[in-house]
Automatic annotation (TrEMBL):
Residues 1-27 form the signal peptide. InterPro entries: FAD/NAD-binding_dom, FCSD_central, FlavoCytC_S_DH_flav-bd, SQRD, TAT_signal. The keyword Chloroplast does not apply. This is NAD(P)/FAD-dependent oxidoreductase. The keyword ATP-binding does not apply. Residues 354-428 form the Flavocytochrome c sulphide dehydrogenase flavin-binding domain. It comes from Elioraea tepida. Keywords: Signal.
């Protein structure tokens, strides 16, 4: 298959770092950079800071001693991955000179430039990176609280509830049973994630429970890579998946864990043997308590730097930030982290920030040897904009015929594996 500009972007997760580093090579002023959160944004920031700006003193505050990725978690449902294969430790970051603090950050004092830890110790900073991820909006769906999630798992925050909780229920589902998923309105973590999950559940059911049904209740009328997903569902899982958008009474307003029912906007009661509820979300509490979040619950940033729009000398990355049209994805957080660190190094040296260029690649597995993707390039100035013609989605089935279509989808799945290995190796290798 010819290598297009789009494919080069999709296949090169390190491109963002190469893009920003040369423009700040003169920035050599020392400074204490503290990073809260060890996910795609925080771990990427720590690694990039140590590799490109070794004069910086870097501290990573992360309560957990390991990180389980949301990407590739859905493959655990299909039986293609185990949880250990998507879980990574921080030892190699420590070996690179990152100071690791495995405690919970409980407060930020922007005036004193300190982060308070759970044990009461204050960690001083000159520049702070906040990449804390998300909190779930318990109660946004009537009846859905943390207790309800034991029967109706979300499995959307690995540190709170691993995807294995849903996998266990899926494997115990009766033959011919019904899997129900409630999907939130935008914005939320990983826009294609629920639809890859539907696909991976369908792949498992096709092999082990072929008479089962999947009902997806969606608070939106459209979703990321929708034509590609629906092409694949029709081809791979005919008759198994029913997707209902908001205009078709797909918005879930309430749930009843006792009866395993979802109640839609217009009163339909949809019962499942397994019910996966993905509730609305917001930035994690540490960001909200520090005054970094707007009324929406998400954190506004300056598009040219990803510095907080509300509190100086703090950068907010990843899912917690308001960065549309960039999605809340792992690769988006990775590229934001590299640019933020370059801007921090420049600010400590009294230099102007480098030009703001961001990248995103998002692959989805839809079936065995079947992958699809969406990519984009973004610029930040007074606002974030997608560069016209910079990316797009994989070609639809109608544009690919016979063996060519199968080979294209197989290669996309291979590219997805390569992307995952490269980005996790960069963060934790």
């Amino acid at each position: 298959m010819p290598i297009s500009r789009r494919r080069l972007i999709a296949a090169a997760p390190l491109a963002a770092g190469l893009a920003v580093a040369p423009s700040v090579v003169r920035a050599q002023a020392p400074g204490r950079v503290v990073i809260i959160g060890g996910g795609f944004g925080g771990a990427s920031a720590a690694r990039f800071a140590r590799d490109r700006f070794p004069h910086l003193d870097v501290t990573l505050i992360e309560q957990s001693r390991s990180f389980t990725t949301c990407p590739y978690g859905n493959l655990v449902l299909a039986g293609r991955r185990d949880i250990g294969s998507i879980t990574f430790g921080y030892e190699r970051l420590a070996a690179r000179g990152v100071r690791l603090v495995h405690q919970r950050a409980v407060a930020i004092d922007p005036q004193r430039k300190q982060v308070r830890l759970a044990d009461g110790v204050d960690v001083p900073y000159d520049r702070l990176v906040v990449s804390p991820g998300i909190d779930l909006r318990w109660g946004a769906i009537e009846g859905y609280d943390e207790a309800a999630s034991a029967r109706m798992p979300h499995c959307w925050v690995p540190g709170l509830q691993p995807v294995t909780a849903l996998a266990e229920q899926l494997r115990a589902m009766p033959q011919g049973g019904t899997f129900v998923m409630a999907i939130p309105d935008n914005p939320f973590r990983c826009p294609p994630g629920p639809y890859e999950r539907i696909s991976m559940v369908a792949e498992y059911l096709k092999r082990h429970n072929p008479r089962a049904k999947i009902i997806a209740l969606d608070a939106k009328n459209g979703f990321s890579k929708q034509p590609l997903f629906q092409d694949a569902w029709a081809e791979l899982y005919p008759g198994m998946i029913e997707w209902r958008g908001a205009s078709n009474d797909g918005r879930v307003m309430a749930v009843n864990p006792a009866t395993m029912e979802c109640v839609t906007e217009f009163g339909d009661r949809v019962k499942g043997d397994v019910v996966n509820v993905i509730p609305p979300q917001m930035a994690a509490r540490i960001a909200r308590d520090a005054g970094l979040a707007a009324q929406s619950g998400w954190c506004p940033i300056k598009p040219a730097t990803f510095e907080s729009a509300q509190v100086p000398d703090i950068w907010v990355l990843g899912d917690a930030s308001i960065a549309a049209p960039m999605p809340k994805s792992g690769f988006a957080a990775n590229t934001q982290a590299k640019h933020a660190i370059a801007c921090i190094a420049a600010s400590l040296a009294g230099q102007a920030p480098p030009p703001a260029v961001y990248f995103n690649t998002c692959y989805s597995h839809v079936g065995e040897d079947y992958g699809i993707s969406i990519v984009g390039v973004y610029r930040g100035g007074t606002q974030l904009t997608e560069v016209e013609g910079s990316g797009g989605i994989s070609p639809r089935n109608s544009a690919l015929e016979g063996e060519r279509r199968a080979e294209h989808r197989r290669l996309e799945a291979l590219y997805a594996d390569g992307w995952y290995d490269a980005i996790t190796g960069e963060m934790f290798g």
